[in-house]
Specification:
Helices cover 36% and strands 18% of the residues. It is of the alpha/beta class. The strands form 4 sheets. Strands 1, 2, 9, 10, 11, 12 and 18 form a 7-stranded mixed sheet that branches. A 7-stranded mixed sheet has the order 7-6-14-15-16-13-17, with helices on both faces.
């Protein structure tokens, strides 16, 4: 039997593509090497009664895409609760200063900024949201379809006129730090927004990172959401949607090669061979190239593409904690602090030092920490009376200097991350009942995140839009391989929980099916 589409991997973008294709009446077979679907958007029982996310925890972008409603994922068990406040930036416990609290409500946010940073910065933040809210909506529009010149022009058309076009382009291409310096004076506010923007991977000193900071303005339209039951509730709902439309999902069966055979493809796994008219590779792009190499694909093309793909030195590591209580920040009430992102950085120099150290294969002098304690919003993932705290820290290199391994330094690095969180939330350490550490090596081994990069490929300007992951592999097709498509964080618009890559890949396939000559490259 030959299926219409074989899909390699079950990350959320792969499942989104499968869901759209199955809904369009195509026969779809998803094959996953892991026994758990979802890749980095999955939740497992790490400790007794504690269901812990393996990757993402807060879903910022997918709720802005329309995908949840288009696929009616609510009918398959998916529900969200708003993170409101969506972020806090507390002062260290030893520093008597009020926290900056980012509410969904702009007025409440500005009141908090005025109390912590002064009226001038509060007014500047209101202006920042007024300017960058519409700009960020256009960025999301640009993310929503294939990165063709026409689509990108239409996405931003009308945002500027002749008088303002130069200023607009200058700010879009500037660094996040430069943008922050234009608007604000208080370093704590700048550091909080820089740390929020840096969740995309690059430091805010890099050109083209201003829109990553500007995305904060969109959180006042719709804040990050926490999926009830954990991050994996999204991929479980997608699986339900696929199966309801006749799709098949196989787990625990690793793909070993992808081979073109005449007019069809063969996807060979450890246990079977799937014949398909089309293949969607939803795994890391370097994994896809390895599978093609084993299938006899053009070695010169593979070599050229590998040299053009920039994974980078690694982004970070995670410490997952089970605790007896939520973290307590003296500068902010617990009712406000536990619902969103806890931005535990007060000075951008800490971010720059951490990134510089990682570039030299060293551990950060002081880890930059982001805390998330979503059992405050959804207690169903922990036993009664218990909680969880995720501590994400950047930047931690995949390869360490002087021949060290993560097996040697992982526990010590985790201790440093917890100690930094303790500096803001005294008593945290005493509340810990269980700990699970995801070093860059562990992220790579467990979820196929090569180099420990949760974004697959660097999110710097040269690796975005029609250059992601390379020009010949952009727009969800592989040059010289008709019927082979790509999706996932390796493709436009990159990492993060958005699903736009999966939807765009599905739309590309459906368009190519209507016009077989359209997709030839």
């Amino acid at each position: 039997m030959t299926v219409d589409v074989a899909i390699v991997g079950s990350g959320h973008n792969a499942l989104v593509a499968a869901a759209y294709l199955a809904r369009a009446g195509m026969s779809v077979h998803v094959v996953e090497r892991d026994t758990v679907i979802g890749g980095a958007v999955s939740t497992v029982e790490r400790f007794s009664g504690h269901f812990i996310d393996r990757g993402s925890s807060a879903h910022l972008m997918i709720r802005h895409t329309g995908i949840i409603d288009e696929l009616d994922l609510g009918a398959h068990g998916l529900s969200y609760v708003d993170c409101d406040p969506w972020a806090i930036a507390p002062a260290p416990a030893a520093t008597p200063a009020p926290a900056i609290v980012f509410h969904r409500d702009l007025d409440a946010t500005c009141a908090s900024i005025a109390a912590a940073c002064g009226a001038r910065d509060a007014d500047a933040y209101r202006r920042f949201v007024r300017v960058w809210g519409p700009r960020s909506e256009r960025v999301m529009r640009a993310f929503a379809a294939a990165p063709t010149p026409g689509h990108l022009v239409r996405s931003f058309w009308g945002l500027a006129n002749r008088k303002t076009a130069d200023e607009l382009s200058r700010q879009f291409l500037s660094s996040g730090n430069a943008l922050l310096d234009e608007y604000f004076t208080d370093e704590r506010l700048k550091a909080a927004l820089a740390w929020f923007g840096a969740q995309s991977g690059p430091p805010m000193s890099e050109p083209g990172t201003a829109p990553m900071v500007g995305f904060a303005a969109l959180m006042h339209t719709l804040p990050p959401g926490r999926a009830i039951g954990g991050s994996g509730a999204l991929t479980q709902a997608l699986a339900g949607r696929i199966r309801a439309d006749g799709g098949l999902i196989t787990t625990g069966d690793a793909v070993e090669s992808i081979t073109r055979t005449g007019s069809t493809w063969e996807v060979r796994t450890a246990g079977s061979t799937i014949r398909a008219r089309r293949v969607v590779a939803g795994c890391h792009i370097l994994t896809t190239l390895d599978l093609l190499e084993r299938g006899g694909f053009d070695p010169d093309a593979l070599s050229r593409w590998r040299k053009q793909i920039h994974v980078g030195p690694g982004i970070g590591m995670v410490v997952r904690l089970a605790t007896s209580a939520l973290p307590t920040y003296p500068s902010v009430p617990q009712t406000l602090s536990a619902t969103g992102l806890q931005l535990l950085v007060n000075d951008r120099r800490q971010l720059e030092a951490a990134h510089g150290a990682a570039s030299a294969s060293e551990l950060p002098p002081t880890p930059a920490v982001l805390g998330m304690s979503f059992t405050a919003l959804d207690p169903s993932t922990a036993p009664p009376g218990q909680h969880q705290l995720t501590l994400w820290a950047q930047w931690h290199p995949f390869e360490l200097s002087n021949g060290r391994s993560w097996a040697d330094v992982g526990a010590e690095a985790a201790d440093c991350i917890v100690a930094e969180a303790e500096r803001f939330a005294p008593g945290l350490t005493e509340s810990i009942t269980h700990r699970y550490v995801q070093t860059p090596t562990a992220l790579s081994d467990e979820m196929g995140l090569i180099g420990g990069n949760v974004m697959h490929v660097e999110m710097s300007l040269a690796n975005m839009f029609m250059w992601r992951p390379t020009p010949e592999l952009a727009r969800y097709r592989v040059a010289g391989a008709p019927g082979l498509y790509l999706t996932g964080a390796s493709t436009h618009p990159g990492g993060g929980v958005h699903g736009a890559s999966g939807r765009s890949a599905a739309r590309t396939i459906l368009a190519d099916r209507r016009n077989p000559f359209r997709g030839r490259r």
